[in-house]
Amino acid sequence: MGFSKRQLFNDSQNQVANYTKVLGHPARIAMIQHISENNNCNCNQLVKSTGLSQPTISQHLGEIRKIGLLKQNVKGKNLFYSIDLDQLNECRRVVNDFFVKTQINCNKS
After folding, report:
1. Contact 7, 48 (CB under 8 A)
2. Where does the HTH arsR-type domain lie (predicted)?
3. Over the range 49-77, which residues count as b (16 or more CB within 10 Å of their CB) and which as e?
């Protein structure tokens, strides 16, 4: 993995980059959509819905969890996932603000 010079960028830039990095993979998008449509689904359900292997699903879930977008609920030996709506709204706000401010800046030119 390459070295990123995150310290060169402000908190807002790093936050947008973190969110969009996670959202930048189609498997993660499919997983987030599936979880949103099937609240409290587990890894096996994601394997069936995406066709990806269990280890691959687990890796992607880990990346999605890094930005706090998932809630975990333990039932027996299984983990079930749902979308953290507060964090979803925060992610939407941050990314939307970036695009709105960029558009405003473009219109000033």
Report:
1. no
2. 8-103
3. bbebeeeebeebbebbeebebbbeeeeee
54 and 43 Cβ atoms separated by less than 8 Å: yes
pLDDT along the chain (109 residues), means of 10: 76 95 96 96 95 97 96 94 97 96 89
Q: Give the DSSP H or E segment for 53.
A: none
Burial-class residue 104 by CB neighbours within 10 Å (0-12, 13-18, 19+).
exposed
Whole-number Å distance between alpha carbons of 69 and 11: 19
Compute the distance between CA of residue 36 and CA of residue 76 in angstroms, rounded to an integer.
22
Give residue limits of the domains in the chain: 17-108
Assign a CATH topology to domain 17-108. Arc Repressor Mutant, subunit A (1.10.10)
